[in-house]
Amino acid sequence: MLVPGLALSYLLATRGEASPRRIAAFIAGLVLILAVFVTPVQAMALHYLLAAHLLQNVVLAEWAPALCVVGIPPALAAALGRIGAVRVATHPLVALPLWLGTYFAWHVPVAYDTALEHPTWMLHLEHLCYFVTGCLLWWPVVHSAPRRLHDAAKAVYLFAAFVLASPLGLLLALLPRPVYDFYARAPERLWGLSRLADQQLAGLTMATEQAIVFFAVFAFFFLRFLRDEEPALDLQRVRG
Q1: How many helices (H) and strands (E) does the chain have?
Q2: Torsion angle defined by CA atoms of residues 22, 26, 31 and 32, in that order, rounded to the nearest 10 degrees
Q3: CB atoms within 10 A of CB 227
Q4: Structure pTM?
Q5: What's phi and psi for 167, nearest 5 deg?
Q6: Fewer beta carbons within 10 Å, N or C terminal of the chain?
């Protein structure tokens, strides 16, 4: 239901006036969601592998929201930014804690296992939380409405997101025993992976992915900040 709802909402909100590049980005976000929910990844996540479920979480909390937010035209972003709730929720000091809190809260073992035991509603709620807070996370990076962030501020924001989120994946990779009981009931172990090896693979993949994605975008804004500041520094040297 998420993908059709997002597609219809986007079509109605943009009235077909978005640029081809933004439409392509939004479609790519939807395709990513479909890639992990209408393929064998879904069955693996629901019955066999923690690593498959964490892949779904990463797609919903980071990759797909980033592409969907990029797909929103500036005029629509400005209109949404005038809504009070959106203005508050997209503030960096609100969006980042909400995203981090969602990530950590749903990975608490009792919450994680309970969601998997109730796939008809609670698991959908978990996934919706990831996507919504993921969109909030990326909004200040992509759009200048309702507030414009300097490139340096965006770099700091992204670096903070990486530093604060990375311990979760590293913790899963380093724990000496499995923490999620749901996968103990898996009918068989795929590819010969033990529960602990599955958890280590999931945590390592999550930490590596976050390092690559967040550092790449951080580097982009940090280097752009340095490029923009260089003429001012040269002028100061000349005057000095």
Answers
A1: 12, 0
A2: 110
A3: 10
A4: 0.92
A5: -60, -25
A6: C
